[in-house]
Amino acid sequence: xxxxxxxxxxxxxxxxxxxxxxxxxxxxxxxxxxxxxxxxxxxxxxxxxxxxxxxxxxxxxxxxxxxxxxxxxxxxxxxxxxxxxxxxxxxxxxxxxxxxxxxxxxxxxxxxxxxxxxxxxxxxxxxxxxxxxxxxxxxxxxxxxxxxxxxxxxxxxxxxxxxxxxxxxxxxxxxxxxxxxxxxxxxxxxxxxxxxxxxxxxxxxxxxxxxxxxxxxxxxxxxxxxxxxxxxxxxxxxxxxxxxxxxxxxxxxxxxxxxxxxxxxxxxxxxxxxxxxxxxxxxxxxxxxxxxxxxxxxxxxxxxxxxxxxxxxxxxxxxxxxxxxx
Length: 326
What we know:
This protein is α/β, with parallel strands linked by helices. The chain has 2 domains: about 45-120 and about 230-325, Periplasmic binding protein-like II (D-Maltodextrin-Binding Protein, domain 2); about 125-225, D-Maltodextrin-Binding Protein, domain 2 (3-Layer(aba) Sandwich). Helices cover about 45% and strands about 20% of the residues. The protein has 14 helices and 12 strands. Strand 3, helix 2 and strand 4 (about 70-80) form a beta-alpha-beta unit. Helix 2 (about 55-65) crosses helix 10 (about 245-265). The protein is globular, with a radius of gyration of 26 Å. It starts with a strand and ends with a helix. The relative contact order is 0.17.
């Protein structure tokens, strides 16, 4: 082809070659971005946890690669309790934390800017959490706990809240119950030495009470409060949720995959427990596992907040919708 006396074929061929090369580069870059290649930056997240059975899905999810597949390098940071974890998350020292929901509701009611990211665990049937009395005690039924002392690991928290609600459901007088704060590991000795009339223990400490002998189950509170009672959640600060929503979403996805996998693979949960809790494989094989679901249980969180207000743990009702991101 000729135009105005000169041949444009070489020019056209050069343009086609350049455009083809540019298009190929764009397609390759787009494919790499969509696939999440190994060259993508990895986000490191410290996650505050308490060393209990409830957080086993997090450890299992790390082992299975559910977090690394989403370019997250997650490091659990064990702590003594939820209040310490809440403080670390609010200050920014840790990006994600794990805590029982009663503590989160109390913190939210006090104006702390928290946001639930994913479900933690739900209460199981059986002796996952139970009130034990001595075998020789006259305490035989829930109503017998009126006027008695019950050990809980923290005052004005999920233990006493669930006990009060269960006792009310059983027709017992909760105004006559005395709660005594005793760490879980010390409860078998406290019961045996008659320092308290009964103890509220959750797994694996419930198994420790039974293994010590001389104890009987008086009440299993959680099922009387609500089936599948939401015990705990993973949470972050509102500032981190706003500044890094993609990272929070990737954590939520990985955590949900971990929770679903954990619920359907209890044998793998029992295998991993001794890796972060001081449990022998024999004890890990017989403890009662909680339930794990991706449902944060917003309606039951609302009910928990109402109970906390009723029992005087709160002065104002927490904004549950804000806490769960609604």
